[in-house]
Please model this.
Amino acid sequence: MTLHVTNTLTGESEPFEPRDPEDVLLYYCGLTVSDPPHLGHARSWVHVDVMHRWLEFLGYDVRHVENFTDVNEKIVARVGEDDLGGSEAAVAETYIQRTIDDMRSLNLLRAEVYPRVSEHVPEIIDLVETLIEKGYAYESNGSVYFDVTGFDEYGKLSNQDLDEIESQGEPDERSEKRNPADFALWKAGGVDPDAVEEHRHEGVDHGGDPPEGLTWDSPWGEGRPGWHIECSAMSMTHLDETLDIHVGGRDLVFPHHENEIAQSEAATDQQFANYWLHCELFQMDDEKMSSSLGNFVTVDDAIDRWGTNVVRTFLTAGSYNSKQLYSDETIAEAEQRWAQLERGYEAAVEALDSPAASSKVEDGALRDAIDGARETFTAAMNDDFNTREAQSALLSIATAINRHLEAARGDTDRDAGPAYDYRGLRRAVETLAELGGVLGLSFTGETTGSADLAGDVVDLVLEVREREREAGNYERADELRDELAALGIEVQDTDDGSTYRLPSEE
RNA sequence: GCCAAGGUGGCAGAGUCCGGCCGAACGCAGCGGCCUGCAGAGCCGCCCACCGCCGGUUCAAAUCCGGCCCUUGGCUCCA
Model:
């Protein structure tokens, strides 16, 4: 069984064959650091992260590179806001740090490199010069444009017809471009003040002076790199001329990725990326999640509200290449799914700790269920990273655990007590941790010092409550349970006493 | 207008590439039952889908072919 992926380039599901049987070169189009990351970004990150983890699970070494676009008018537009910083570089730095923090709290595997545009201008200039030399690009008033008519395959990713694109362009007599569809590789001069103005937040005081952005010397005079060239230059610098997998948001297919292909392949005469994978976007009711509509949730807030595991369960509750609905209901569902997984895991751990667990007991149904779940999980992930199906497999392990515990308790004759399948439960716990790990879910719930203390206190309260129950003071017992619940502590009464769960997360 | 993706139960969301195991997964919500002092959790069972519409191919279609309707995203400014 091999991994299949849906390639935007062909529109079809294809068996995945990296150029090198051991290494996979993975490039993800990162973000322009001009705003705090929101859940939409997190959705793509998490799916790329799951791809990365699954490729490693399959035995590949993954060389994962993800850029930061730190040169952009949108960033300049933030200069002077609040405490973001007084220059393009400072604003970018602020958001890069924030982005890295968010990535960490989402439990993302680190990429090998996070290259920045501002640190790759020489490589960009080299690439532009190559394109001019090869006749694919031309200089005009200090700017350099890519001539799309020179690249026969232009439009192959997005299925655009060049004539169609051209006819769309507004005729502009004074344009520096030969063709409306040509795009800038290098832009003469400093930042475009109109573009900056367009991205300013209303009612924010930016101080007096018009902001300046970064500029560099080039063979064509002072200027800034164009929007698309960065990804070509950085991926070639840190990976290779041909990538195995290039991932990005669906919204980048055209023109960004289309242009990347054109300039890269024109420059190297090599295929730029063998597999183009695109993450679909969030939908809020009938519109997409976007900053301008003000309907987004920042990664930061999401983690605070629901915790990493719930957020990741939510983000992987649909396929990476299908749109996903964001609503209170869909989040609540994800909370339930995660809670079920966690409860199943914890129930198994608890049973393993009890003297009733024995290596002499064997529950075939439990073991079969685990094996089946592993097969389902593997098949699902190999089928274009079907994370929803993979979650189902995990859930079926939780169910199998509960079923086994239930059966064992049911068999109990009073004196002997229940008997648990020690090895079966161990396998269940290990499998959940291992496969859950592929989705970036963490069952280990490491408790911090304060959580330990909280645990001790809860134990104390439960002890008091138990005495009330024994004395028949159920009203008082229920009050205590409700009061704990109000603090987010879930109490569950069982035959062997009461257990509890602290509110999840870090 | 062009390009792309999609329309599956009350919600959400797999399955569509490789037609039959789909009388449609997993989950949420709802309804019974077991358990419980009660609740929750768990377990068992149930309810809810003529798979957008119309036609075709086939022994057999959610899955293939054709037409139509609708939704969403990108482009139509900059690039």
Residues 338-438 of chain A form a domain with the Four Helix Bundle (Hemerythrin (Met), subunit A) fold (CATH 1.20.120).
